[in-house]
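Notebook entry, cofactor series.
This is the third protein in the set we're modelling with a bound small molecule. For this one the ligand is flavin-adenine dinucleotide. I'm keeping the input format identical across the series so the outputs can be compared line by line later. Sequence and SMILES below, as received.
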Amino acid sequence: MSETSKLRPPSADTLDALARIVGETHAVRDAADMAPYLTEWRDRYQGKAALVLKPGSTDEVSAILKCANETLTAIVPQGGNTGLVGGQIPFESGDEVVVSLERLTHVRDIDLASNTMTVEAGLVLQVAQQVAESAGRLFPLSLASEGSYRSAGCSPPMPAAWPCSPMATRAIWRWGSKWCWRTGACCTG
Ligand SMILES: Cc1cc2nc3c(=O)[nH]c(=O)nc-3n(C[C@H](O)[C@H](O)[C@H](O)COP(=O)(O)OP(=O)(O)OC[C@H]3O[C@@H](n4cnc5c(N)ncnc54)[C@H](O)[C@@H]3O)c2cc1C
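Returned structure with ligand:
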């Protein structure tokens, strides 16, 4: 049996438990409010979800994943929803839960000595570029979706993104809401 075939549609109790983790304000159940999370910008992929969750901390992400593991609920992480291959859109069954990173946008640390920036997984790339610039550094990754795409969403297509980035860009630990970007020789300061 594959891991995917072990997944179960979430019960009403499971959905309530997941919603309690983030609070009802950040748990989207209404079809109209869910719609933006269920289709991608070219309208090529449309899905359905049992729930959309918007955690506000690493602890909430951990609690969501713990509950999902225990109940065998499928989770679909979503950053800026700019991916071109539909991985951020749930399947049409409506049994999956979308976890949006849109509230995880803090810059946790800028270390000028090591030229690293530690940011939460939902920080938009353009903001990361601006923060680096204000610290006298150049964040070298740049692509057309940079005004929307969030830091963790960058990792799956990273090999394709590398040609856009002449300098080494390194990402560590995605689900922990922490990214560490090393801008290396690209520093301007
Ligand atoms: C105009 C345009 C130009 C683009 N140009 C390029 C380009 O030059 N090079 C390139 O490589 N790509 C390019 N892309 C596509 C690129 O994949 C996305 O812009 C970006 O990388 C996805 O980030 P996102 O936050 O929108 O992630 P989403 O689209 O939300 O998610 C992308 C994937 O990552 C997963 N994911 C998101 N967050 C997490 C997480 N925290 N943990 C685990 N998985 C996660 C999702 O489930 C999904 O499978 C472009 C897209 C657009 C619209």
